[in-house]
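=== RUN LOG ===
request id: a7f3
mode: sequence -> structure
chains: 1
length: 515
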Amino acid sequence: MTSLIDGPSALAHEPVHVPDGRGVQRPRVFTAPPYTSSAGQEAVELAAVAGLMLDEWQKFALHVGLGERPDGSWSAFEVAINVARQNGKGALIEARELAGLFLLGERLILHSAHEFKTAIEGFRRIVSLITNSDSLRKRVKAVRRTTGEEAIELLTGQRLRFLARSGGSGRGFTGNTVILDEDMILGDDAMGALMPTMAAVVNPQVWYLGSAGIGSPSVQLARLRRRALAAMESGEPDPSLAYLEWSVSPHVRECAPDCTEHDDPLSPLSVAKANPALGYRLTLEHTERERLTMSPEIFARERLGVGDYPSEEGDTWRVISEETWRALADGTSAMSDPVAFAVDTTPERSHSAISAAGRNGESTHVEVIDHRSGTGWVVERLVELVEKWRPCAVVIDSGGPAASLIPAVKKALEKAGLDKVGGDEDLLVEMTTRQVAAACGQFYDGVADQTIVHLDQAPMATALAGADKRPVGDGWAWSRRGVSVDISPLVACTHAAWGHAERADIEPEGAPNLW
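=== RESULT ===
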């Protein structure tokens, strides 16, 4: 095998230049265990025989991914490539599979994709490469095209199987190499099916390839990325992971050691940093059209590599720190008129919460009024609270799980003659998505500015300890997916505080409240 003279660390962190509008060929986020030789050059040359001419970044990924220890085993058991779409990820997969079949003698390679159509497209591409090369085609025994049985088998016994991902795909096979395409949609079930296939194999390897994380489906990718960032922070490479990510830095903490600011998403330099194929198969003109067409969040994810990665289990208080929240607790706090109520329920409808918000001097007091299992109790309890305390608003997110309660709440309030406030204003406020994002921003700002006060109730502390964020337009909302705790008390308090801010100037009907 050929040596890589400069070594991986010397090649990874080159200065960011954009000569002739071309993309940066080295990844921003990078870790790889040391290696003494690499099969990468042979893989590059074999790809050329098949008519597959690789870019420099693809060659680099092969050099690093196929790095070898002195005993000839792979230096990296896991190789992860995280790069934006249309940069040539598919060609890299094909080059690795060609090497496994014709160069490395791997007996079984399993190619898995999240969607069946993606796996089939990969199958068709590599079949085309092999059949159009005389030197490779003559070594093929069979190409199996039966749906669900797609495979290439060589005369010498090596096989490449294509599978759509599911909880059972890959069970029963013993794979030397597993290729996991679309790794941004890769969870524990798929990993549980595929990883044991390599347990009895000498010198196995798994390749993950995909683009930026998309939230809770990106469980495995998030794990890999955390390991890579930890290795970069410590200065010690991960002992079994080669991770290469082309992306911009959305946060100062993810910059290179000499970086003091995050990357400008509007800059062509950012596009070049996240897209190594810029100037080869992508143009700045096209990426600018994408930016004008997509929302800022989608453009950042799809073209700049800024992903949404779920936090690992046990990583708590991610949005608001426990110290910050506890500092705002006041067991003697009470609300004054007018107050607002809000209702929320979990997506699976296991629990519901009614919360309230009102003024306490210059601060906003938030409180969980009732929190129980199910939803059957909510309407009756809410009408009881409205009749007793005459609030300025009852808030329900029209796009959230509690939206199904809106018709019943309306009917019950009308029947009780409690559906209006301040004369002719509807008491029930049905929040829009934009208003939900505004409510979350206001709540977060109130905590940061220390203008929120609370009673230190356990349901709120539990919710905040496990809560995360999801992007909504130019803002964010509390995330319900990928969160293992019930956050309905937190969501209800957030919405109640917003409702109070919006309606506090409306004169409530009835007697004053005595909280």
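=== NOTES ===
Confidence is low (pLDDT under 50) at residues 1-16, 251-261, 511-515.
Residues 24-302 form a domain with the Rossmann fold fold (CATH 3.40.50.300).
=== END ===
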